[in-house]
Amino acid sequence: MGLFRDRTVRIDQHGTDGVHVRAVGRPWSLWADAFGALAIRAVQIIVVVALAAGIIWGIRQLTVVTIPLVIALILASAFAPLMAWLRGRGIPSLVATLITLFAIALVLTAVGWLIVWAVRDQWDELATQAQGGFTDLMAWAGTLPFQIDHAQIDEWLKALTDFVTSAQFGSGALAGVSAVANFITGLVLMIVMLFFFLKDGPQMWAFLLRPFRGEPYERALRVGDKTVTVLGSYVRGTATVAAVDAVGILIGLLILQVPLALPLAVLVFLLAFIPIVGATLAGILAALVALVANGWVVALLVVGVVVLVNQLEGNLLQPVLMGRSMQLHAFVILIALTAGTVLGGIVGAVLAVPITAVAWGIVQVWDGPHTPARWARPHRREAIASV
Description:
Helices cover 77% and strands 5% of the residues. By secondary structure, the protein is mainly alpha-helical. The protein has a domain at 61-138 and 177-365. Strands 1-2 form a two-stranded antiparallel sheet. α4 (93-141) crosses α8 (261-271) and α7 (214-255) runs antiparallel to α10. The chain is globular and about 85 Å long. Its main location: membrane. It is found in: Cell membrane. It is a multi-pass membrane protein. One of its GO terms (biological process) is transmembrane transport.
């Protein structure tokens, strides 16, 4: 009896002989009780974590391939409506792809030319202002209640000069050359991947779905459509918000006569793709340029302009353009940014949030077009409270 768990009990009565009870069951297992279920769950978690760690390790070893692949997929999703519109007008896929790539190259070339022109036009003036600002800074340092050891400053400058002329700096420069070579390789690979995604994206996805049948096939279709929709909406919404930020800050810098206003505005646009952190970095850089070139009063005004534009964007523009379905909690964004930065540096920080948004979007359509996965559905009391 101790080796069996009772499942059913049959009671037989035989007159006055009493009641005879016979237990019918199956052998008892160590995995059948609560502790056994916990152990099974722990093993499952270990397997999932090990699998995720292996995938992340493989991605980090093949960043020259994986990062261009992800960027090309994001850009292809962003330009998917344009490709659909061109195909709807009877334009062949190859011609539509070439038109899209030419438009992208034209915009990037124009922006790059404007940046180079602005920097070259204002560089001499900025250098002169920077020298004057440094002189004023040293004069202000002389008025402090404590003395600054100029010999120590000279020693730091000498140490910096020795490092620049050392073999260690030379090896670092060689590493930088290797990084530039990897960047060029990744850029070329990304362009090629983007070309094929734009031209043959739907056919490529249909080919990948051939092994699926029935409900798995329908789920894979929902996942693919949701991925393209989320990535495209995220990139287009973020680009629009970033453009508004850049224009607003550009107007403020031009009014305050801060040099390098156009390059700083472009930098604001690029950094806006890193949520939370990007706006802060852009504001700091703009304030530093204003501090060196125009003084601390103008620098404070620049900080005020940056804060005002970011507040208007965050409270008015972003909720309208991004939509509630694209919004992630600030805590989730912070965790995603941290993980992305640790795993992939600046590129990881840029890609972390859209990838997280895609993962959450897939969860939202896992069991149906408007049915989230079972574990992600709100409880009855929670749903009533939200209404």
